[in-house]
Design a protein that fits this description.
The structure holds two protein chains of two kinds. By secondary structure, chain A is an alpha/beta fold. In chain A, 38% of the residues lie in helices and 17% in strands. In chain A, helix 3 links the parallel strand 3 and strand 4. In chain A, helix 1 packs across helix 4. The radius of gyration of chain A is 16 Å and the shape is globular. Chain B folds into two domains: 140 residues, Rossmann fold; 119 residues, no CATH class. Chain B is 29% helix and 15% strand. In chain B, the strands form three sheets. Chain B has a six-stranded parallel sheet with strand order 2-1-3-5-9-10, sandwiched between helices. In chain B, strands 4-8 form a two-stranded antiparallel ribbon. In chain B, a hairpin with a 2-residue loop joins strand 6 and strand 7. The longest helix of chain B is centred in the N-terminal third of the chain and has 13 residues. Chain B starts with a strand and ends in a 15-residue tail after the last helix. Classes of the chains: A alpha/beta, B alpha/beta. At the A-B interface, helix 2, helix 3 and strand 5 of A face strand 10, helix 10, helix 11 and helix 12 of B. Strand 5 of chain A pairs parallel with strand 10 of chain B, so a sheet runs across the interface.
Chain lengths: 146, 318
């Protein structure tokens, strides 16, 4: 059996999710490897989400938001950009290939672009192989004394 | 009232936690009056076989410092868990992996290569490396097996309470001892001897709106001592680090490094630190952001200095 990568997509509600929806209604064909999670803004995406996806067995993570200047909340996507630039350095320190994590801008009218990004990423990850970052679950949510 | 039966042990630790316990000064006499010490390798002469001879659950409280680095650390963690009623992960290493877990960015092979072959102070022409078992004329001798990955205590044993800090401050240690003596203990799994607020909440420095246009390093620049260090561009882990240490580092003129671990509900300290600190970088252009971010030479070891062992990915990929 050939390896099929699992990609977790975290998409902003206003542009990228609508863009991905457009790809669907326009019947654009692209690989079914991406599992989409909708958030209100790419500025909501905490690097923790990406680590959690990898630790739970994802082979790649794709964060998508509005193009710079187009954010529904004025500058949420700039926050995402700043975080992810620093975060990419940390991923590299963990020994994770850069291709496994992408931050992309997809507008509500760019269904074709969304399909192209997913196709590209799937192809790259097929070549890279499984991420093998899965960690056994462990409840570490220690709480402090009241 | 019967005296409390107390045990203490060090796994992969530096001994700083033991020293911190002694730093309660004359109160150590109160501790001695209230508790019998049944096991404490650094201070009293009991052997592993003395612990093995105890009935199960014999010790009331065991303070375990240090991370799990080899098979001996793990074996004794299991043994002490069996022989104790309350097991406390004491200090950053037992709590989150601590400084020893920075070794998770390498593996056993790389560490042995450097330590036994490449380091400038090593002379080892025969290329000898320690082996778990060695045959000698008298029979076979064994040493503990060295692990690839350093783990916090709760990865191998059930932990009742966590006392954070590198090391925990003497004041907080005494608070914990008092809580144990009076039986005034919170729910299992709680962090004790610390506050539930962040460092920033307890920090004395003046805070304004945070906008970072560049990062400086404490090694090459001197922070001004009135304003928030983060606002001045010095990386400070205050926004996500648990308080309770009386912000001793900030009062000494250096930024917080995060030894008290993250506040409640944080799954990955390094990721949360990036989330908090990167979002206040004052730049919108991709190239500009990259240039500012490049001023941080080592993001993983900076943001996750004390918590790689407990981070979501735990180690560099093998």
């Amino acid at each position: 059996m050939t390896f099929e990568p699992k990609i977790v997509g975290i998409l902003c509600n206003w542009c990228s999710y609508t863009g991905a929806d457009l790809a669907g209604t326009a019947r654009v064909k692209y690989p079914p490897n991406v599992r989409v999670i909708r958030v209100m803004c790419s500025g909501r995406v905490d690097p923790t989400f990406v680590f959690k996806a990898f630790a739970d067995g994802a082979d790649g993570v794709l964060v998508a938001g509005c193009h710079p200047g187009d954010c529904h909340y004025i500058e949420g996507n700039y926050k995402a950009l700043r975080r992810m630039k620093l975060f990419q350095k940390m991923l590299a320190d963990y020994g994770i290939e850069p291709a496994r994590f992408r931050l992309e801008w997809v507008s509500a009218s760019e269904g074709e672009r969304w399909a192209k990004i997913v196709s590209e990423m799937t192809e790259e990850l097929r070549k890279l192989g499984p991420a093998r970052l899965r960690q056994p679950r462990k409840n570490r949510a220690a709480t402090s004394a009241a | 009232m019967a005296k409390l039966k107390l045990g203490s042990y060090w796994g992969a630790a530096c001994g700083g936690c033991d020293t911190a316990i002694l730093d309660v000064h004359e109160k150590i006499l109160d501790l001695d009056a209230a508790a019998d010490i049944l096991f404490w390798p650094i201070a009293v002469d009991f052997k592993y076989k003395d612990v093995e001879a105890m009935p199960d659950g014999h010790m009331d409280v065991v303070l375990y410092h240090g991370a799990i680095r080899n098979s001996e650390n793990e074996h004794i963690a299991h043994l002490l868990r069996k022989k104790s009623k309350v097991m406390v992960a004491f200090g950053s290493c037992a709590h989150l992996g601590g400084i020893p877990s920075l070794a998770n960015l390498y593996d056993k092979k790389q560490i042995f290569q450097y330590v036994y072959h490449d380091s400038p102070s090593t002379v080892n022409p025969a290329g000898v490396e320690p082996q778990p078992t060695t045959k000698v004329p008298e029979g076979e001798i064994t040493i503990p097996i060295f692990y690839d990955t350093v783990m916090p205590l709760d990865f191998v044993a059930d932990v009742d309470y966590y006392v954070p800090g590198c090391p925990p401050t003497p004041k907080q240690i005494w608070n914990v001892v008092e809580a144990i003596l009076t039986g005034n203990l919170p729910a299992k799994g709680s962090v004790v001897g610390a506050s539930s607020k962040t460092q920033c909440d307890e920090c004395h420095l003046k805070k304004n709106e945070k906008k970072i246009t560049g990062f400086k390093r404490i090694a090459t620049a001197q922070p001004e001592q009135e304003t928030c260090y983060l606002e001045q561009g010095f990386l400070c882990m205050g926004p996500i680090t648990r308080g309770g240490c009386d912000t001793r580092c900030q009062l000494s003129g250096v930024p917080c490094r995060g030894c008290y671990g993250p506040v409640d509900g944080v799954l990955d300290m390094g990721a949360k630190a990036i989330s908090a600190i990167a979002s206040v970088i004052e730049a919108k252009d991709e190239k500009e952001i990259e240039a500012i971010v490049a001023q941080i030479p080592d993001s993983l070891r900076t943001f996750n200095r004390f918590a790689i062992g407990a981070s979501l990915l735990r180690r560099k990929t093998l």
